Amino acid sequence: MTITIGLPSKGRMKDDASAIFERAGMKIVAVGNDRSYRGRVEGFDDVEIAYLSASEISREIGNGTVDFGVTGEDLIREGLAEADARVEIAARLGFGHADVVVAVPEIWYDVDTMADLGDVAAEFRTRHGRRLAIATKYWRLTQQHFSGSHGIQLYRIVESLGATEGAPAAGQADIIVDITSTGSTLRANHLKVLSDGVILRSEACLVRARKPEHEGNEMIGRIIEAVRGVL
Ligand SMILES: Nc1ncnc2c1ncn2[C@@H]1O[C@H](COP(=O)(O)OP(=O)(O)OP(=O)(O)O)[C@@H](O)[C@H]1O
Ligand SMILES: O=P(O)(O)OC[C@H]1O[C@H](OP(=O)(O)OP(=O)(O)O)[C@H](O)[C@@H]1O
């Protein structure tokens, strides 16, 4: 059986992911030229590398097209319903840290917690004639956190695919759910994170698709052990 590992094709995660595999004794070489989207692992003839975007990796692990992938936990939990049943987080890799957070305008002085926000959401329609609008690309995580964990039902999600932090100032939404790492983008946009507004602390993970053919496969176990051994 050929084992396929999906690795980020660009950006901040690509080099860190390759470095971990190299330290684990699995040096990755491009097939063809440097711009190729396929790779192989020196000394591992039955392993192939597919270079994909971080969000594609989450999707391909979910449908089992790749056996392993390196991607952010945020993209796994956002991209896949029932993520824990479909994939195993085999290792947390210690890079690509980002928190998915609920942030509101700094000038909402009375709003510091999700409970405060629930009060605002409940009164919002009476006061403003519409529901509280949340800009995000994290639909699933937002619904789980608001409706599931905090019982807040009165809101509307406004899809945002970029520059989410600008949405409140632009009048497109009232608050946001997005990732933050240093916090500087939130500060620059006069937004603050609620004290219980961290939905997920994400980092890059080695993720395995749960497939029946992995049971008892020696190479699957060997790859996981090799990566864990260098963390
Ligand atoms: N400061 C950051 N900004 C954006 N993503 C970050 C940051 N730090 C870590 N990450 C993580 O990187 C991953 C997203 O990477 P990237 O933007 O390359 O993915 P992508 O959405 O597939 O890219 P694209 O939208 O360009 O196709 C997420 O898991 C995210 O949590
Ligand atoms: O807390 P900070 O350190 O300010 O980082 C957070 C920002 O970084 C990302 O944007 P970026 O433009 O880097 O990437 P993206 O376009 O992939 O979202 C992310 O979407 C936030 O806007």
UniProtKB/TrEMBL annotation:
It is an enzyme of class 2 (transferase). Transmembrane segments: none annotated. Pfam families: HisG. Keywords: Amino-acid biosynthesis, Glycosyltransferase, Histidine biosynthesis, Transferase. Pathway: Amino-acid biosynthesis; L-histidine biosynthesis; L-histidine from 5-phospho-alpha-D-ribose 1-diphosphate: step 1/9. The keyword Amino-acid biosynthesis applies. One of its GO terms (molecular function) is ATP phosphoribosyltransferase activity. Residues 54-228 form the ATP phosphoribosyltransferase catalytic domain. The keyword Transcription does not apply. It catalyses: 1-(5-phospho-beta-D-ribosyl)-ATP + diphosphate = 5-phospho-alpha-D-ribose 1-diphosphate + ATP. Its EC number is 2.4.2.17. Belongs to the ATP phosphoribosyltransferase family. Short subfamily. Catalyzes the condensation of ATP and 5-phosphoribose 1-diphosphate to form N'-(5'-phosphoribosyl)-ATP (PR-ATP). Has a crucial role in the pathway because the rate of histidine biosynthesis seems to be controlled primarily by regulation of HisG enzymatic activity. This is ATP phosphoribosyltransferase.
